[in-house]
UniProtKB/TrEMBL annotation, chain A:
Record keywords: Magnesium, Metal-binding, Transferase
Residues reported in the UniProt entry to bind Mg(2+): 16, 200
Name listed for the protein in its UniProt record: Isoprenyl transferase
EC number: 2.5.1.-
Xref: InterPro entries: UPP_synth-like, UPP_synth-like_CS, UPP_synth-like_sf
Subunit structure as annotated in this protein's UniProt entry: Homodimer.
UniProt-listed GO biological process terms: polyprenol biosynthetic process
From TrEMBL, chain B:
ER-bound oxygenase mpaB/mpaB'/Rubber oxygenase catalytic domain location: 21-251
Entries under InterPro entries matching the protein: EF-hand-dom_pair, EF_Hand_1_Ca_BS, MPAB/Lcp_cat_dom
Annotated source species: Nonomuraea jiangxiensis
Gene Ontology molecular function: oxidoreductase activity
Protein name as annotated: Uncharacterized conserved protein, DUF2236 family
Lineage: Bacteria, Bacillati, Actinomycetota, Actinomycetes, Streptosporangiales
Length: 245, 471
């Protein structure tokens, strides 16, 4: 049971490389997004069967709105189609789905409706929690939390890391233990900035549409081989995924 | 305990009020449905209902308002009671007129109002009788006294109801025998309302599910109600006597009575049922919470599994639907002053406006009505058809609408900071801050509010928030 005991509790994926995957095949960028769907489903299932309790996927950032309108439009349609297609399977597998971000008025109302429905449908599931960062920005979340603190009139001396974290969206989400960024790019890209503070990062060169369960297992293996210290030079073991708070 | 004036310091209904207990009992729904039919057979009330009431098009909203209003009148705090009775009286004072046959009606008519209370009392007694719960004489007298107190709170006195229970029954029989008529409203309730009752908010997105359930439940509800009505009344109004209807009615009442006695009281509380049907207005507690959550999940699953409707029908609401759900509040197929008055009434009720603000709101609606009449009523018949509205509503100067939006903004902006914040917004729409209105800011300026209201009311822009308010 060594694998289970050293499994990260919370894995996050920055799904990078769709455009390059399409370009390599002389296809439009949107073909890459389309191909990404299979990888998403494969990874959700692989993570769930591996026993990972929290999985976060970076689907669309606040900066992604700068992309050409046509591409954004197709992306929105693809997300909607994927939600409708996979909702029953996700529900029957006990996956609780949540969406982080989702505040831009440009998100089409039917998609908002479907996302709300998927969230409602799966709200009681506890097998695994899937957080899809959609229209997400890590800095924005921090700003929102600060606003929320001010609105709640929390006295300055009571603002600690723990109280601050309670004002972040989905404050029950544990810190991320492992971030996987595909396509070899090595940037944070404004992703869950607060939650990734102590995360281990792996950068597999494979492009996201080609990312499969075997790649995920390799990443989990890489995580296990690392020594997590959380800034402490004396301790040099414990890759249990439990960060000290 | 007969009191003819509202006591300002004590709970006039007493701490163990029977009326308060019945009103919170879900089976009182049977009594109210039955009483409504008897009220509608009163010529004045029947005409007023047909001409002004929104109960056919918006029965669930009407039910919720009635429930809230009754609970406020039965409140132990005299300020809540007085505020509500004053508001109801102002509301009723605006409902008067002449129907197409030249008959006058007035919602402030003392005799008609006494009849409303009489039907509610008698229907409550009948409800107890039919569900196998007998009320002894002292209990009957006490209940009657409480109903008279209720009337006294509304009217200032209860002179129009006989002083004793002994005198009440001859009065009741006399009205049934000689005063009631076969009005249009009776037929609308029994045959149109029950058969076409729109989906409660919970099932609004599932017309097929609702239509299938209603095809059975509608005729059953009508049969149960008819079978429970007094025989002389059924004879006069020529209501059908279907075989098995009485057994069905007895079964329904007995089941409801048993449920009241056997189930935990919080399960059969009327607000539990209302919150079940209308999740938007429910709090997050109570035994039905799980049922409601599961129902919500089933609805979500159903929506996700049904093929996605095409983009156009999702994005824009059809003109017919907008006209039927928002503009034509009384459901007669036309836009006329009673429709606008019903909107004003709903907003005034929702925000519990004081007299001055209520007057401003009605004046603004009246201004809009004058504008509509001047520009749109090409037929000159005093009302606006859907075609007339669709043809030129967008091109109107809409000064009346701007006035309404202004009043709406003022009464919603409680702290007077010229912006509507999250709490104020929720008070108006009873829903979360609408995401497409907020943008990056967490409040809502006057100009943005007016703009949004105008585009919604001219049917140009869909708004979930305004739908919850006016449809």
């Amino acid at each position: 049971m060594e694998i289970i005991s050293r499994l990260p509790r919370h894995v996050a994926c920055v799904m990078d490389g769709n455009g390059r995957w399409a370009a390599q095949r002389s296809l439009p960028r949107t073909a890459g997004h389309e191909a990404a769907e299979a990888a998403v489903i494969d990874i959700i299932e692989a993570a769930r069967s591996a026993g990972i309790k929290w999985l976060s996927l970076y689907a669309f950032s606040t900066e992604n709105w700068r992309r050409p309108a046509g591409e954004v439009d197709i992306l929105m349609r693809l997300v909607r189609r994927a939600i409708r297609k996979h909702a029953p399977a996700l529900h029957t597998r006990g996956v609780r789905c949540r969406f982080l971000g989702m505040s831009d008025p440009r998100i089409p109302p039917p998609l908002v409706r479907d996302i709300a429905d998927l969230t409602t449908l799966t709200s009681d599931n506890r097998q695994m929690t899937l957080t899809v960062a959609f229209d997400h920005g890590g800095r924005r979340d921090i700003v929102e939390a600060a606003r929320s603190l001010i609105h709640a009139a929390v006295p300055a001396e009571q603002v600690t890391e723990a109280t601050f974290a309670r004002h972040l969206p989905y404050s029950d989400t544990p810190d991320v233990d492992l971030v996987i960024r595909t396509s070899g790019e090595q940037r944070i890209s404004n992703f869950m900035l607060w939650q990734v503070a102590y995360a281990e990062w792996v950068f597999p060169p494979v492009l996201w549409p080609d990312f499969r369960a075997t790649h995920l297992w390799e990443c989990l293996e890489a995580y296990r081989s690392r020594q997590r210290r959380f800034g402490d030079v004396r301790q040099s073991t414990a890759t249990t995924g439990e960060a000290p708070r | 305990m007969i009191q003819t004036t509202a006591d300002k310091t004590v709970d006039v209904f007493g701490p163990d009020s029977m009326l308060r207990r019945f009103v919170n009992d879900a089976r009182w729904g049977f009594a109210v449905a039955r009483a409504t039919v008897l009220e509608a057979a009163h010529p004045q009330i029947g005409t007023a209902l047909i001409e002004n009431s929104t109960f056919v098009t918006h029965p669930w909203r009407r039910l919720r308002n009635t429930l809230v209003s009754t609970q406020r009148i039965l409140d132990t705090d005299h300020r809540v009671r007085n505020r509500e009775t004053a508001r109801l009286n102002r509301l009723h004072a605006r409902i008067s007129g002449t129907d197409s046959q030249g008959r006058h009606y007035n919602a402030m008519d003392a005799e008609a109002r006494a009849w409303v209370i009489a039907t509610l009392f008698e229907s409550t007694v009948t409800m107890c009788r039919l569900s196998g719960q007998s009320l002894d004489r002292p209990a009957l007298e006490r209940l009657y006294a409480e109903f008279r107190t209720f009337l006294a709170l509304l009217e200032g006195n209860s002179d129009r109801l006989p002083p004793t229970l002994r005198e009440f029954w001859p009065y009741y029989d006399d009205v049934i025998e000689h005063r009631l008529e076969n009005t249009e409203a009776v037929h609308v309730i029994l045959y149109r309302l029950f058969a076409n009752v729109p989906a409660p908010p919970l099932l609004r997105n599932h017309p097929a599910v609702w239509a299938a359930g209603r095809a059975v439940a509608g005729p059953v509800a009508a049969a149960i109600t008819i079978a429970s009505l007094p025989e002389p009344f059924c004879r006069r109004v020529a209501l059908p006597d279907l075989p098995g209807a009485r057994a069905l009615m007895h079964g329904a009442y007995l089941t409801a009575g048993l449920a009241t006695r056997l189930l935990p009281s919080s399960w059969v509380h009327v607000s539990t049922f209302v919150s079940l049907l209308d999740p938007d207005h429910a709090d997050d507690s109570g035994p039905w919470q799980t049922v409601r959550r599961k129902a919500g999940q089933a609805a979500a699953m159903l929506r996700l599994m049904t093929p996605a409707p095409d983009k156009v029908s999702q994005a824009t609401r059809s003109a017919d639907q907008f006209f039927a759900e928002v503009l034509d509040q009384t459901g007669d197929g036309y836009l006329a002053w009673p429709d606008l008055a019903a909107m004003a009434r709903e907003i005034a009720t929702r925000l519990d406006l004081d007299e001055q603000d209520e007057e401003r709101l009605y004046t603004a609606y009246a201004a809009w009505w004058r504008e509509l009449q001047t520009h749109l009523d090409t037929g000159g018949d005093g009302r606006v058809t859907r075609q007339e509205y669709a043809a030129s509503a967008v091109s109107l100067p809409s000064l009346g609408l701007v006035k309404i939006a202004d009043v709406l903004f003022d009464v919603t902006d409680l702290d007077d900071d010229q912006a509507i914040d999250v709490q104020e917004y929720q008070r108006l729409f009873r829903t979360a801050f609408h995401r497409d209105l907020t943008g990056r800011a967490d409040s809502y300026s006057r100009s943005a509010f007016v703009r949004e209201f105008l585009s919604f009311m001219s049917g140009q822009q869909h708004s979930t928030a305004y739908n919850t308010l006016l449809s």
